Amino acid sequence: MEVGSEGRRACDYSSTNEEGKGCKKQVSSNNLFRAILETRMRDRRVQRRDLKLVNDFDSAADVVYYHGDCRELLQQVPRNFFQLIVTSPPYNIGKEYENKLDLDTYIKQQGEIIDLCVDKLKEGGSICWQVGNHVNGEIVPLDIILYPLFKKHGLKLRNRIMWHFGHGLHATKRFSGRYETILWFTKGDDYYFNVDPVRVPPKYPAKKYFRGAKKGQYSCNPMGKNPSDVWEIPNVKANHVEKTEHPAQFPVELIERLVLSMTKEGDWVCDPFMGVASTAVAAILHNRKAAGAEKVAKYVTIGKKRLQLAAEGKLETRPMGKPVYEPDWEQPEMLKGMKYLLSKSGQPLEGGLEMFLESK
Ligand SMILES: C[S@@+](CC[C@H](N)C(=O)[O-])C[C@H]1O[C@@H](n2cnc3c(N)ncnc32)[C@H](O)[C@@H]1O
Fold first, then answer.
1. Every domain of the chain and the residues it spans
2. How many angstroms does the Cα of residue 28 sit away from the middle of ligand 1?
3. Residue nearest ligand 1's atom 24 by CA
4. Rounded to whole angstroms, how far apart are CA atoms 108 and 114?
5. Cα of 181 to ligand 1 centre, how many Å?
6. CATH: 3.40.190.10, 2.40.30.110, 3.40.50.150, 3.10.290.10. Which one for 48-311?
7. Rounded CA gap, 237 and 256, in Å?
8. What is the mean predicted confidence (pLDDT) over 295-316?
9. Is the CB of residue 66 below 6 angstroms from any atom belonging to ligand 1?
10. Which of the pair, 83 or 20, is modelled with greater confidence?
11. Ligand 1 contact, 97 CB (< 6 A)
12. Does the predicted TM-score (pTM) go above 0.70?
């Protein structure tokens, strides 16, 4: 049985508890619809495939994983080559893989890499630059700072996607940060975008047209709705099924959404800051090709292993479209915690509520 990133079991979708402990939820139409979409996404993933994985650029490869500086890899690539470039660069906040630079030097370095990326991007292709905030006494929103580095090339901003997630540092002197952004730019106006493979369940599946020729008919798209520009996808922390020793991994499902909507099968996807190859995993799971660079050897080793497993259909990833974990308040431990919190809250419980809790 599959155990999800938050310890939930796949049988959350089943209508009975016959698959094991902790599976008490009754099926709801929304969960069912999500399950159908999820299965559809899984079906799209490539199950078994020989993988031609090489270290230096080779247009006949499936994956190019360059160990070294991304500028060296990008210089090997022909102009106008990639359909999609998606990356999360270092944020310059002192993670184990980065030397903290002063902001001007950091922006200059990012500019050099962005210039190369734009040069290697196809006309009609997309660049998705995923960043959070640089923290230095105050927060500095990196996407706002980097925006002009793309605009100077005439790229068009199509979305500023808010990636919202549930886990991170607990701030004490400001609100805890729970989002990062993805700037999605295209090279030109005639760009490829197909929302159908990444649609999500509609909020009101029973909604009907209330006037006109279609009055009384269901108005939802049966493929689901556009996922909008606010994405709630769990980030890769300790309990996530994809966690490796890399401190800042992409969740594969985040990149799958970009790959499926912005590329076709056989297209090339590039991640200049490849880390443990999450972008390349998303690409090969959907029959695309991938190239990227990583300067830390141990991440390259981990990434190559993940790619082999992915090609064989054995890499565990959080399924696309899987609902985000919601606590089961009926669980005995949760109830205990709730009773404790209420007893410490300094407000007496109203009689009916106290009796109800006691009955649990
Ligand atoms: C934010 S992490 C990206 C992690 C990646 N998205 C993943 O899912 O594993 C940035 C990565 O870029 C690498 N890196 C930093 N500067 C680099 C450079 N100039 N060339 C290649 N890799 C670099 C770091 O070692 C780090 O692993």
1. 1-44, 48-311, 329-360
2. 41
3. 97
4. 10
5. 17
6. 3.40.50.150
7. 19
8. 96
9. no
10. 83
11. yes
12. yes
